[in-house]
Design brief:
This protein has 363 residues and is α/β, with parallel strands linked by helices. It is built from 9 helices and 13 strands. It folds into 3 domains: 82 residues, OB fold (Dihydrolipoamide Acetyltransferase, E2P); 167 residues, Rossmann fold; 71 residues, Probable gtpase engc, domain 3 (Ribonucleotide Reductase Protein R1, domain 1, Orthogonal Bundle). The strands form 3 sheets. It has a 6-stranded mixed beta sheet, with helices on both faces. Strand 8, helix 3 and strand 9 form a beta-alpha-beta unit. Helix 3 packs parallel to helix 4.
Amino acid sequence: MMNLEQLGWNAHFDKHCKPFRQQALVAARVVRAGGGFYSLLNADGEQTATLTGQLRHASSADTLPVVGDWVAIDTPEDDGIRIHAVLPRQTALKRAAVGNRKGQAEKPGVPQVLAANVNTAIIVSGLDNDYNPRRIERFLTLVYESGAAPIIILNKADLCPETKARRTEVEALAFGIPVLVTCALRGEGLDDLAPHLQAGRTLVLLGSSGAGKSTLLNRIAGADYQRTAEVSAAVGKGTHTTTHRELFPLPGGALVIDTPGLRELHLWGESEEGLASTFPEIVTLARQCRFSDCQHEKEPGCAIRQALLEEALDPPRLESYLKQREELVYAAHRQGLATQVAQKQKSKVTQRKRWRPGDEDDQ
């Protein structure tokens, strides 16, 4: 059996759990979720639970339990274990919900939470045809916005004759973030990851389909936790095998969340802090522009355009920055619409409560 501390419990969750203890509820961590059922772990082992009706109806899509969440549950009854509340998250990896974005600009939006309460996010990129520095930048913004610490792993070193050059390229955009080179299939380069696998710490594996996340998990776990597949000869990339998110306790005490590959990564953020952390040199240059609202296009005194002319700034990197900034503005707009809708609904409910049958007779 594992105690709560081994599952990542800390003072933050202990503080927020006190009111629920007074209601005879206990804490557990979500390790799998799907179909309205949640697999949980706590000192009593693994259990399956469902949501109370009150929690289900009171929650929005982004506040329902996800893998990594801590929840307050009751003791087993005839109708099973029920989740009464989700404890406040310390970190949350969010992206804009997948779907057709055309024509959606004037509709409210909510984010999709990929995982919660993660300490370290491992961005895995294959060094085969999966390799894409621009995609790595997008993952970095996602991780920074969540509050987790990023690590980059360049996997499948055995398939790349330019490993050193690509590592140098990624280190240039990583600004001090650890960049590790591995061949998970052969178990090479994993010693550099060991210092990050601390007992009680939660890590998540992020990347596109076939980057080697599940193979990496199996290697560091020393067991076949997840199914894997060989690289496709047709496209030169790994194939999709993981179909759900799941938290795995490792023998050494760390906890790792494996995730399906992300085919779409539309950004979602409550601020531009994540963007600023991914592109610090561009943000620094932008502060030197003559106009505070400079769009870095044709405005006079634009420090970013001057840096491009002097070849001090990489054009593809600026393009990546501008595209991400546009997505975050779009997400903020839709989030604002969602807030307006919620406020209107709340106002209607309040008005209904104030109105009583027979009030019209007083007119």
